[in-house]
Design a protein that fits this description.
24 helices, eight-stranded mixed sheet, 44% helix, alpha+beta, 17% strand, 771 residues, five-stranded mixed sheet
Length: 771
């Protein structure tokens, strides 16, 4: 250990006593800063993921550049043999050089903390992915350095050593990118061997012992190989087996490799994970645990998974198995699961299809050709006499939410029914497929038609009014009013201004609902809210079709990111995109005896367009610098006991409104405590937009809150998407970019000058002592 420390200090001193270390770090930081600064406000999120994207790629080249001379140059000049003759073991030399190079490479990451400071001033950053990402970078760099030293031992020529190192590192780094071209039998092994998936896991903010064991294993194996080849007698002895003690060396490497493989196999089955994210997004939630504890009977999960799945489903089985094991471990023996391959037996496949699991088409390479085959990645759930399913596990991001939703659904004896209002020239149900399919996982969905005064079915608990486009008659308003008075919940998703067919101007949509809204305690204004934080669209000269062409910011499609963090609906959401949204006002709520709460507001650089004819031409100059409005409410909730707008109408008026003689004793004048959601946009939940940003989560949270079913909202609200940056001026953006680009290398230049000055001062002092 003493010799290793001596070599380490000697190499580290040689790096920093010469300009090479500073030149390396400055070039590295200039390239990193250029990437981060140029993309920071394009991605516009409070995260260091830009850093975590570019650093591995840069170190793929920089690590071999640092290490290529460490052994090869010393062997060529003969100094390596001198070290060996001084009773210093080859392994001690390799280990000392490795730690010195690792410290050098890792120290290049220290100035990047300036990115963290600047981003933290612009937004709220999650510390978990930050810590995990930096740890992942240090371990990844350690692997690259170890491989680089191994490459340096294979040749006395530095260029050859550099090329060998890059080739080996590239294979390890890019292995997961070519999984689709590999035989299915080895896809899992190849993915585990690849270095990038382990780094991606750490950069999420999850410390997994499997990832750490993997990195340490590769480092140890690479250094062992480096020690073996560094100990050869000459650069050509490796090709002359009679001059190389290969039998003893290979045996030692084989034993060590066997131990490493065994440890990785053990760690794959016995592992520990620490979730560092702020909202514990990768840990089984308390809501799920409470639901598991409430089980009174066995909850049985059948996982129908084909064996040897190709990408993108290759790791689904592992992730599902790990999550189900967590459910089982917290259930006290109530949760049971089994994995079955439907393709192994026709009877099992028929049972899977009968239970609702659908096959997916996957591409594999067979006989040097792409072929399409079917596979299964579905789950079924049974509890008492209730059944549910996830036909296809398409994404792993919301896996816990989907499984827990099914668990809650089969535990609930009676599923709540939600109606979608139709018949008012609004969007067809075909444009709400995503909404309907998502809601169907938890609720029964049906259409509701009140045209002509038809009554709302009594088994409907909540009604969603989505972008109606014609006037409501008095009879239809009366039906809605009485539905609310009887305790019904309504989601009003209203377009007060809609674009014309030429996409030039916005037209006011007269729904004849203003008096109803006013009587309940809110207003949806006949305006459009423009926001400097907005979507960028592709524009053609023919502006009726905004699909391709040059990209430009369009303030009338705002991206809202200012949320009421005290409300469960929007807590932990990142950003929601609206499509021609109007402002809402719930200040009348308190006067009407109910409680109104704003949910989402525009940014600090906003504007209301409310002239007689609103111009929406995306080619116009929106003059964002004139946007002086701030925090304009776009969505709100109203809760309490509402008074009917028809309570004081005469019998004659009621008869005229309803169209038939009405028994006043049957008319409810005041509701029990109920809930209403008000959003100044009805298009953000249509298929064209609901997949944008957090629109789906926001919509589902609204519905859950309406039906008083917020249990699962906390799971869905554990969003791992980084928060957006605060809106700042162009001058501030420019200053942040310059600081991130020039600041880190500038720090290194200053440190280098100071160190070089101190070294020169010591040299002058020594000279003066010997004069």
């Amino acid at each position: 250990m003493k010799n290793t420390l001596h070599i380490f200090l000697k190499e580290l001193r040689s790096f920093f006593d010469a300009p090479i270390a500073y030149i390396f770090i400055i070039i590295f930081l200039l390239l990193t800063g250029a990437y981060v600064a140029s993309n920071l406000f394009i991605q516009n999120v409070a995260s260091l993921r830009l850093l975590f994207e570019v650093v591995p790629v840069l170190f793929l080249f920089f690590a071999p550049a640092i290490t290529m001379r460490l052994v090869s140059e010393e062997r060529r000049s003969g100094t390596f043999e001198i070290l060996v003759t001084k009773s210093i073991k080859t392994g001690e030399i390799v280990l000392g050089k490795f730690f010195a190079a690792w410290i050098l490479a890792s120290s290049a990451l220290i100035p990047t903390m300036l990115y963290l400071i600047s981003i933290s001033l612009l937004g709220s950053i999650d510390i978990g992915p930050l810590l995990g990402g930096y740890l992942g970078l240090v371990l990844l760099v350690g692997v690259f350095i170890a491989i680089g030293i191994f490459g340096s031992t294979l040749s006395d020529n530095q260029i050859v050593a550099f090329i060998i190192s890059i080739v080996v590192i590239s294979i390890l780094y890019l292995l997961d990118k070519i999984l689709i071209y590999l035989p299915i039998q080895i896809v899992g092994i190849a993915e585990y061997i690849g270095a990038l998936p382990h780094f991606s896991s750490l950069s999420r903010g999850v410390l997994d012992t499997r990832d750490i064991v993997y990195y340490l294993s590769v480092i140890i194996l690479a250094l062992l190989l480096a020690t073996m080849f560094a100990g050869r007698e000459s650069s050509r002895a490796i090709w002359k087996l009679r001059d190389f003690t290969w039998r003893q060396q290979i045996l030692r490497v084989a034993i060590t490799a066997g131990i490493i493989i065994f440890l990785n196999l053990i760690s794959a089955r016995m592992f520990t994970r620490i979730d560092l994210t702020t909202n514990k997004a990768y840990t089984l939630s308390d809501v799920t645990k409470e639901l598991i504890e409430s089980l009174e009977d066995d909850f049985v999960v059948k996982a129908y998974f084909s064996s040897e799945l190709p990408p993108p489903y290759h790791n689904h089985r592992r992730v599902v198995h790990e999550l189900l094991e967590e459910y089982r471990a917290n259930s006290g023996g109530r949760v049971h699961y089994e994995f079955t391959n439907p393709l192994s037996d026709p009877e099992i496949e028929r049972a899977a299809v009968r239970e609702g699991v659908q096959p997916v088409q996957v591409k594999i390479i067979r006989n040097d050709q792409f072929q399409t085959e079917k596979a299964y990645v579905g789950l079924t759930f049974s509890y008492e006499d209730q059944h549910d399913k996830i036909p296809i596990v398409t994404t792993l991001d919301l896996l816990e939410y989907n499984i827990t939703s099914c668990m809650k659904k089969v535990q609930t004896k009676q599923t709540r029914k939600i109606g979608i209002l139709t018949g008012f020239s609004g969007p067809s149900l075909d444009k709400m497929k995503v909404l309907r399919s998502t809601l169907a996982k938890q609720y029964q969905i049906s259409s509701v038609d009140i045209t002509g005064g038809k009554a709302i079915p009594r088994d409907i608990t909540s009604v969603l009014m989505i972008a109606p486009n014609r006037r409501f008659t008095d009879a239809e308003k009366f039906i809605l009013d009485q539905f609310i008075m009887e305790g019904g919940r309504v989601g009003f998703f209203i377009n007060m201004v809609a674009p014309d067919s030429q996409f030039i101007k916005g037209r006011y949509v007269d729904l004849n609902l203003d008096d109803m809204f006013d009587s309940y305690g809110w207003i949806i204004n006949p305006d459009l809210v423009a926001d400097a934080r907005c979507e960028r669209i592709q524009m053609k000269e023919d502006i009726e079709e905004l699909t391709s062409g040059r990209e430009s910011a369009y303030p009338l499609i705002p991206i809202a990111a200012d949320f009421n963090q005290d409300h469960m609906i929007v807590r932990n959401l990142s950003q929601v995109m609206f499509y021609f949204v109007s402002s809402v006002d719930v200040r009348l709520a308190s006067i009407r005896g109910v409680t109104g709460e704003e949910l989402i507001r525009s940014s600090s650089k906003s504007k209301r367009y409310s002239d007689g004819q609103i111009v929406i031409d995306p080619r116009q100059n929106f003059a964002v610098e004139t946007y002086t409005d701030r925090m304009i409410p776009l969505a709100a909730t109203v809760e309490g006991s509402f008074r009917s707008m028809y309570a004081r109408r005469s019998d004659a008026e009621l008869q005229k409104i309803a169209g038939v003689r009405v028994d006043r004793s049957l008319i409810a004048s005041k509701s029990p405590s109920t809930r209403v959601v008000v959003v100044g946009d009805g298009d953000f939940i249509l298929d064209d937009y609901i997949r944008k940003h957090d629109n789906t989560s926001f919509t589902m949270n609204l519905v859950d809150w309406l039906v008083d079913d917020i249990v699962l909202t906390s799971i869905r609200a554990r969003d791992v998407t980084p928060k957006p940056l605060n809106e700042v001026s162009e001058n501030t953006r420019a200053m942040v970019k310059y600081m991130n680009f020039a600041g880190p290398p500038g720090i290194v230049v200053i440190v280098g000058i100071i160190r070089m000055g101190m070294k020169a001062a010591r040299r002058r002092k020594h000279k003066s002592l010997f004069k």
